[in-house]
């Protein structure tokens, strides 16, 4: 603790202390005043140096010159600026021409054609000038014409349902007979169907794999034979494969429970351009046996199917073949199967391929009817003779039409 003197000495000490404190307050006030003056002068100097001169404007950075705040900006003169590029010349608008570009696809129609004798022998010495083709009655100019023996891509579509035991021998014999005709470069898929279709073997070039698939046909499942549904699904599958395809349809032709009707499957077949169907009817011996005794042949778990039902099935198979350029076969005996498939092999390996650009290029989804004729070079009737000089009757087999539509690849 600090003790201060008392009495007269204390009064003198107090006066001295007061003067000292007054002097200190004066010094502090003077210091504050000086600092205030200095701050004011500095602010005024900064403001003066940052303000542009009278009549001077800020220049953009792109004008060049110094980029700090010392010295003037270097502003280029008007004459030093490069001239602007001339605007692009707009194309002249043609009256009636739309403002968008148009890409035109020129369609090509390919038509496989078989020309055979009535015995099924392929006639192989015809030339391009022997063929005439028309679309909806309008003559077409052939742009491509070839004939060759080429590998095939085929689907063996086999009916196999519970209750088909009356036809089981025919079904298996026909299927094995077709596989035996395959060559090493051919592709084959095996599909069976009852209520639905089953892929037993995807496309393969291995005969043994195809035989193995057929060997699975031992225990049938459902009794229904939904032909229309199975054929529709098969057409969908092969539509994604390039080139021409063939469907060998081994069936009784009877459809029992399909979700699709005949009109729908016919529309699907007409919309398919590069598939040929060869139906092989089975069960004729059984049918004739029951019909000769005034009974209806059984089908599917022994349920009798009337003669009219089988006749309708036969007509449908003929139609499927005719629309696609194939042929339907109705063998009576199993011994006929090897010869039938040998004939089918000759048909699908040896054929004429005709292509043309249609005079009606619109892909509007309409169905176009085709007609292929074989004529003499002068346009008259073509006569074909055998080795003995006798006239031969011949058949021209080609699809009846196609649906003009865009294809998706």
Supply the key terms.
409 residues, alpha+beta, four-stranded antiparallel β-sheet, 17 strands, Rossmann fold, five-stranded mixed β-sheet
Commentary on this structure:
The chain has 409 residues and is of the alpha+beta class. The chain contains eight helices and 17 strands. The protein has two domains: 91 residues, no CATH class; 201 residues, 3-Layer(aba) Sandwich (Rossmann fold), CATH 3.40.50.410. About 8% of the residues have low confidence.
> What is the CATH architecture annotation of the largest domain?
3-Layer(aba) Sandwich
Provide the number of structural domains: 2
Strand order of the largest sheet: 7-6-5-8-9
Strand proportion? 15-25%
Biggest β-sheet description:
5 strands, mixed
Task: Give the number of helices.
Answer: 8
Order of helices and strands: HEEEEEHEEHHEHEHEEHHEEEEEE
Binned, the helix content reads 25-40%
Give the tally of β-strands.
17
CATH class categorisation of the largest domain: Alpha Beta
| CATH fold label of the largest domain | Rossmann fold
Shape annotation: elongated
What is the residue-averaged pLDDT? 77
Terminal residue distance? 107 Å
Structural class: alpha+beta
Query: CATH H-level name of the largest domain... which superfamily?
Result: von Willebrand factor, type A domain
């Amino acid at each position: 603790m600090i003790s201060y003197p008392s009495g007269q000495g204390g009064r003198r000490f107090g006066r001295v202390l007061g003067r000292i404190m007054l002097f200190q307050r004066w010094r502090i006030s003077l210091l504050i005043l000086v600092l205030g003056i200095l701050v004011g002068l500095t602010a005024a100097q900064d403001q003066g140096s940052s303000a542009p001169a009278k009549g001077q404007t800020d220049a953009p950075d792109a004008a060049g010159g110094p980029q700090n705040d010392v010295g003037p900006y270097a502003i280029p003169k008007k004459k030093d600026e490069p001239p602007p590029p001339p605007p692009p010349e707009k194309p002249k608008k043609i009256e009636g021409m739309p403002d968008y570009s148009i890409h035109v696809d020129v369609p090509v129609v390919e038509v496989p054609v078989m020309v055979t004798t009535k015995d099924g022998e392929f006639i192989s010495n015809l030339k391009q000038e022997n063929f005439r083709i028309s679309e909806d009655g309008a003559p077409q100019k052939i742009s491509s014409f070839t004939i060759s023996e080429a590998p095939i891509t085929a689907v063996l579509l086999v009916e196999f349902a519970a209750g088909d035991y009356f036809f089981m021998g025919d079904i298996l014999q026909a299927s094995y007979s077709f596989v035996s005709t395959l060559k090493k470069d051919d592709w084959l898929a095996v599909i069976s169907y009852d209520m639905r279709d089953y892929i037993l073997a995807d496309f393969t070039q291995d005969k043994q794999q195809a035989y193995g698939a057929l060997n699975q046909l031992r225990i049938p499942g459902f009794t229904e034979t939904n032909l229309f549904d199975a054929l529709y699904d098969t057409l969908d599958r092969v539509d994604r494969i390039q080139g021409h395809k063939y469907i060998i349809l081994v069936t009784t032709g009877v459809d029992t429970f399909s979700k699709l009707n005949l009109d729908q499957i016919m529309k699907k077949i007409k919309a398919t351009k590069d598939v040929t169907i060869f139906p092989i009817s089975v069960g004729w011996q059984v049918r004739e046996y029951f019909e000769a005794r005034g009974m209806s042949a059984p089908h599917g778990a022994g349920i009798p199917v009337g003669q009219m039902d089988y006749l309708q099935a036969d007509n449908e198979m003929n139609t499927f073949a005719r629309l696609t350029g194939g042929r339907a076969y109705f063998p009576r005996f199993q011994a006929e199967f090897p010869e039938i498939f040998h004939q089918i092999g000759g048909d699908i390996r040896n054929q004429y391929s005709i292509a043309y650009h249609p005079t009606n290029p619109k892909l509007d989804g309409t169905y176009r009817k085709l007609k292929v004729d074989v004529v003499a070079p002068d346009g008259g009737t073509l006569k074909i003779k055998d080795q003995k000089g006798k006239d031969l009757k011949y058949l021209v087999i080609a699809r009846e039409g196609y649906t003009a539509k865009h294809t998706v690849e």
